[in-house]
C-alpha cells in the first residue's frame, strides 16, 4: 500500500519489530509480496529493535526481494556500500537477498538509504548498451595513442639500443607484471618497472624518479606482452614530457618471434627466484 512507482516499477521500504525468527518471517512476507504483485517490483524489508533471541549473529535482518534478479543484485551491491561495516552475513538467492545487519532502523539514515538504494536500482535513465557521449572504446584509445608515437619493431629497438652513435640515452623498459614475466620470460638487461610505477620512475620532477631520469629527451622504449598496454603507457610518458618515449610493436611476443639475443626463458620451479633476478640489471619496481 505504501509502494511508490518509479518508471512503472513499484518500490517500498518497510520496517517491522523483530520476531522469533526474523529471516523466516521476512522471507514469508516476501513470498506473499511476490504472489500479490505479479508486476515488476523491488522491496526492502527489515526488522528493528532488539535482535531475535534465535539470531546467531545478534543482528537484525534485512531482506531485499523483487521480481527481477538484476534489480535485486543491483540493490545488494548498493546496500553493501550504504551500510559499510554493518552487514554481518549475506545470503543471495537471486530474486531475494537476506542479510544480518547491525542496528538497522536505529536512525533516519537507514530508511532514506534504503529508499535511495531501491530507486537507483530500478531506474534506467540511459540505455545501458549505449556508451555515454564523449567516451571512447579501448580500440579508439589505443589508436589515438599510437597516432602520437613513432613505434618501433623489435629489430629497430635492438638497433637503437646498440647504436654507439645514437645521440641520446636509450633504455628498454619491461612494464609487465611479475606473473607475466614468470610465465613468459623476459629480456636480460631491460629495466623492470611495472605499469603502476612507470610515470613516477621517469618523471624528473618526482621524488621517486630513477637516477637516470635526469633529462626529458631520454629514448624510452616500453614493451608489454603483446604491444597493447605499452602504447598507452608510452603516451602517458609523453604527458609528463618524455617526448621520445615509444613502444615495441607486438611486445615481448614479437621479440621472441624474431629470436633476438638477450631473451631470458621462464624460470623453472626449482630456480625461479634466481632466474627472475636475471631479468634486469636495474630494477625499477616498487617495494
From TrEMBL:
Residues 263-287 are annotated as: Disordered. Residues 266-287 have a biased composition (Polar residues). It comes from the Eukaryota. PROSITE patterns: RHODANESE_3. Residues 166-264 form the Rhodanese domain. Gene3D superfamilies: Rhodanese-like domain. This is Rhodanese domain-containing protein. It comes from Pisolithus microcarpus 441.
